C-alpha cells in the first residue's frame, strides 16, 4: 500500500480527496491534517467517511508527513511552498492542489498571488498536472502542480484547436460559471445563501488569477503568445463548472472528428456527439470533463461547451489521477464511480 498524507483535510477539496481515496485499492491514508480540528476523528466532521477514516485529524507536522510516500496539499495558496523543500528532500512526492507551483514566471505569480514566493528554486522542476498534456512528465515528477478548476475546463476545451493552429489566437473568449464550492469551505458573506441563492453574477472581471494560468497553458500549446478574455461567474449551485468558449477558426475542418481524435485515449475527457448540450449537474461525482463542439449557423465562430465537476476533474479527482500516474498505477483507480443523477 502507498502511504499518503493530506494537508488540509477539512476543506472541500480535502474531503473530496478522502471520498475518492476511500475507494482506492492501493492507498492507505495515514495522515490527515487540520489545525482547527486536531485530535477530532475525521468521521466526526464528515459522517459520510465513517468506517472509512476513523483516525483523528492532526497538526500539519513535517516529521509525520515525511513518513508518507506522497503528500497532497489541499490548502490555501502560499501554504505548500513553505513545506515542499523538506518533503522533497525526505524523498516524499508532493501534489499541490493550490497554485504555488502552477506559474513558471515567478514575477507573474507574485503579481497575481500578492506574496513573495517562498520556494522559487522548485518552481522549474514542478510539473503542471494536466495529464492530457503532460502525462509523460507527470510519470517522472516528484512535485506536481494540480491545475485550477477554470483552467482545467478552459484549457481542455480550447486545446485541440490551439494545438492544430486552426484558430485566431488573439480573440479567444472564455465565459465561465462555477458553483459555490469553488470558493472553499471558509465562511464569507459573499457565499451566504442569502447572497448567492436565486442570484447570478460575474466577478473578477478586470482580472482573475486564473487568467495567467490559462494563458500559460494555451501559449505553450500554440508555441506563441495567446490573448484571452476570461470572465468568471458565480451561480447558485454547489458543484460544477460550465465554460462556454468562443474562438474564430481560420480554416475549415471537421472539428467534431478532430476533437474526438485528440481525446480518443483520454479516460477522463468525453467529447459528446455533435449537437449535445452538457449540463454541470450530470457530472457530479465523476472525474470527466465533458465537451461539445458547436458551429452556430456554420459560421467561423466555434462554441465549445466544456463542463466539469470543480471538485473532481477540477481538483481532487485530477489530483488522484496525477497520483496514479506518478506511482505507475492504473490511471483510473479510485475514479470509476458512476455520476449521481439527479
Ligand atoms: N474548491 C475548489 O473547487 C477548488 C480549490 N482548489 C484549490 O485547492 C486548495 C484548497 O481549496 P479548498 O478545499 O476549497 O479550501 P478550504 O478553504 O475549503 O480548505 C482549506 C484547508 O486547508 C487547511 N489550512 C488552511 N491554512 C492552512 C495552513 N496555513 N497550513 C496548513 N493547513 C491549512 C484548513 O484546515 P485548518 O485551517 O484547520 O488547518 C482546511 O482544511 C486551494 O488552494 C484552492 O484554491 C483548486 C481547484 C478547485
Ligand atoms: C467560485 C469561486 O470562487 N471559485 C474560485 C476558484 C477556485 C479555484 O479552484 O482556484 P485555485 O485553485 O486557483 O485557487 C475563484 O474564482 O477564486
UniProtKB/TrEMBL annotation:
Keyword tags: Amino-acid biosynthesis, Arginine biosynthesis, Cytoplasm, NADP, Oxidoreductase
Domain Semialdehyde dehydrogenase NAD-binding: 3-141
Active site: 149
A GO CC annotation given for this chain: cytoplasm
Subcellular location: Cytoplasm
Catalysed reactions listed for this entry: N-acetyl-L-glutamate 5-semialdehyde + phosphate + NADP(+) = N-acetyl-L-glutamyl 5-phosphate + NADPH + H(+)
CDD domains: AGPR_1_C, AGPR_1_N
SUPFAM superfamilies found in the cross-reference section: Glyceraldehyde-3-phosphate dehydrogenase-like, C-terminal domain (SSF55347), NAD(P)-binding Rossmann-fold domains (SSF51735)
Pathway in which this enzyme or protein is active: Amino-acid biosynthesis; L-arginine biosynthesis; N(2)-acetyl-L-ornithine from L-glutamate: step 3/4
GO biological process: L-arginine biosynthetic process
InterPro entries per UniProt: AGPR, AGPR_AS, AGPR_dimerisation_dom, AGPR_type-1, NAD(P)-bd_dom_sf, Semialdehyde_DH_NAD-bd
GO molecular function terms listed in the Swiss-Prot or TrEMBL record: N-acetyl-gamma-glutamyl-phosphate reductase activity; NAD binding; NADP+ binding
EC identifiers of the protein: 1.2.1.38
Gene3D superfamilies according to UniProt: Dihydrodipicolinate Reductase, domain 2 (3.30.360.10), NAD(P)-binding Rossmann-like Domain (3.40.50.720)
Domain of life: Bacteria
Family recorded in the similarity comment: Belongs to the NAGSA dehydrogenase family. Type 1 subfamily.
NCBIfam families named in the record: argC
Function of the protein: Catalyzes the NADPH-dependent reduction of N-acetyl-5-glutamyl phosphate to yield N-acetyl-L-glutamate 5-semialdehyde.
Protein name: N-acetyl-gamma-glutamyl-phosphate reductase
Taxonomic lineage: Bacteria, Pseudomonadati, Pseudomonadota, Gammaproteobacteria, Chromatiales
